[in-house]
Write the structure tokens for this entry.
Amino acid sequence: MLYLCIEILTAIKRNNVQMHATTFRNLGNIMPGQWWQSLHRTMLRGVLGKTFRLVGYTIQYGCIAHCAFEYVGGVVMCSGPSMEPTIQNSDVVFAENLSRHFYGIQRGDIVIAKSPSDPKSNICKRVIGLEGDKILTNSPSDFFKSHSYVPTGHVWLEGDNLQNSTDSRYYGPIPYGLIRGRIFFKIWPLSDFGFLRDSPNGHRFSDD
Amino acid sequence: MVASALYLTNGAHQYGYECLTGMAQSKGWVRRYFKAFCKGFFVAVPVAVTFLDRVACVARVEGASMQPSLNPGGSQSSDVVLLNHWKVRNFEVQRGDIVSLVSPKNPEQKIIKRVIALEGDIVKTMGHKNRYVKVPRGHIWVEGDHHGHSFDSNSFGPVSLGLLHAHATHILWPPERWQKLESVLPPERLLVQSEAE
């Protein structure tokens, strides 16, 4: 059996060698050196051309994607418990950036902002107060209520899950320039598909 | 006669065909130009916008808060600087860099100042409500070179790195002020204590 296999393998090898020989011969009267040169040239040109086209398309679509995310909006996945029950951990939401550019962020909007202590990470909170608003800064256990005013150019953010949220009650109001976009629509999970609800905590600011 | 009739119909046929293709061609060039314009528009505009947002752009400096480094002539001749976004894409700045950032008091405005201190450093302030300030994590302390005429961290405190916009590297206009902007701390603003060393 083994001898049979070896016989078959050597026969195939012999046939292969014979095939190669015929290909070489069938290329007519071209000298072998020229044949290699022309093959290299066409292969190289084809590969280079394809690479340049691929790079060009990548740059073009990358730029279109950047413009879309920067000026229109995009899909974001949120993580963390600080916005429960409105947004749960690993929900997928749709964020739009037009409100930020036209300065149309209102009280009660859920926004994505750059974290003030780590510019490479994003936070997702609700806007409780705009500039000039009076904010209650004490926790419910304090006896005396303490107020503070939101300075110009800043916003006061709080998560919906007040017990488990690091927000402006911890690091103070953040500048408006850190806001990246406004979340207004939830895509996943499908059981919660649709526009986002109002804050479950009622009004935490006094308008007087 | 039949032959000539055939010849005529053939000719008419041919003429009609040429007419049709002629018309198609004359309308075709409009469509072709429109297609080329759309293609160019959708390629050129996003690429240009991305370049100006992510790589580099130029800006005119206004105000006297960075004299004498920038705008020494006051309002007669404003300097034009090259703003490099690529260098700050990871929010890495050094002490002494001239940077542009979104103003924390007015998000529609960009201000250009020098970085004096990074996170963890203790700064001796000039005109701030606290005499010494420790710069918190993720923040920087910026000041204009013209003390007293500058709206900077001495007024609004340390700024978050997320507001960083670009690093000003060169002066491009006027031509007699062509130079590379050096990252050097003014000698009177040396630090009290820095975390890095």
About this structure: Chain B has a mean pLDDT of 84. The interface with chain A takes residues 42-43, 45-47, 49-51, 53-54, 90-91, 102-108, 136-139, 159-164 of chain B (CB under 8 Å). Strands of chain B lie at 56-60, 80-84, 98-102, 110-117, 122-124, 132-134, 139-143, 159-160, 164-173, 179-180.
